[in-house]
Amino acid sequence: xxxxxxxxxxxxxxxxxxxxxxxxxxxxxxxxxxxxxxxxxxxxxxxxxxxxxxxxxxxxxxxxxxxxxxxxxxxxxxxxxxxxxxxxxxxxxxxxxxxxxxxxxxxxxxxxxxxxxxxxxxxxxxxxxxxxxxxxxxxxxxxxxxxxxxxxxxxxxxxxxxxxxxxxxxxxxxxxxxxxxxxxxxxxxxxxxxxxxxxxxxxxxxxxxxxxxxxxxxxxxxxxxxxxxxxxxxxxxxxxxxxxxxxxxxxxxxxxxxxxxxxxxxxxxxxxxxxxxxxxxxxxxxxxxxxxxxxxxxxxxxxxxxxxxxxxxxxxxxxxxxxxxxxxxxxxxxxxxxxxxxxxxxxxxxxxxxxxxxxxxxxxxxxxxxxxxxxxxxxxxxxxxxxxxxxxxxxxxxxxxxxxxxxxxxxxxxxxxxxxxxxx
Length: 424
Ligand code: IFM
Fold this sequence. Notes:
binds 5-hydroxymethyl-3,4-dihydroxypiperidine, alpha/beta, about 15% strand, 14 helices
């Protein structure tokens, strides 16, 4: 029996599940033909109308913590013009989540910008920092009585690298200076949002506020340890992808090549360490790479369970705070190895002895996976997009059993994990 004292929950993001006709960067990216399977985010999981069914399912599976996000373009469709109906919808959703005994962890920005914000330069324009903070303030004033815990920004490094270096996310730019500027600006946004949320909630009379950001961290390793160039470039890639941004966001320390924008001072800017962990990169040139002969998921990402503890330890050495795995999961379209993946990652966390308090599985249901559209399945619950029927997968039953038994018994291991194998 593996005892698991970590609290287990699930994660999602607004654009990936809600659906609805909105004017934002991803509806625009879809219209420009950048979604590989041509899926329209306006469909997604229709969570907008099926939210009660989804939350009921979550509660039936014994889930007590849920990380979700709000859609900025839904709440503020034009600059300074707020949609009260959207606010009411989120309030009803959050109230229902709580009524089911589930504690929400609310993400304020998860990859998607309203098009009006993007049009004025988005996060590549320092003058937009107050605009983002204006949205944060509005959201906390509207939802602060229902939500104690916040993620300011999801994966600022992925947002910057995919959108401004690789050019595969909106706005499709390919520029190192812009990538660094976006990382710098988002780090400033996180720090200022951290302080703002604490101040606002305090003014509202609350003392139990928790704020952090969800950091996407990977293990970067040289393709050949004996090759000096591989070692150098692996270190540099790691530094540029996550190293400098981690220190900026957590500690307010902006070292070259990042730049400080606005009034941010060195300090401690996280009440928990939010870690989104998926894979290891094997590096022989600037960018990504996958180790030859390694186990891979259906998107070709290496499956490397020990990396979750390695990344968590590195964050914890920088700032000793409770660790929340704000995302971990895998693209497994047939649900043929997800149970083993969950088992191996949880075991790595348990064995690490680190203060890991929570684990949010990505994702509760299959959903709109950005450029991959609907064809990359990460959920514990299967979505039939044509009918919107939800069906709990084998891995969903396994996850519910872990919650119920507070661990993985021998019987559970034999039923769910032992029959599964990773593929190459
Ligand atoms: O779906 C994404 C999520 O939005 C951010 N983290 C990684 C997930 C899987 O790619």
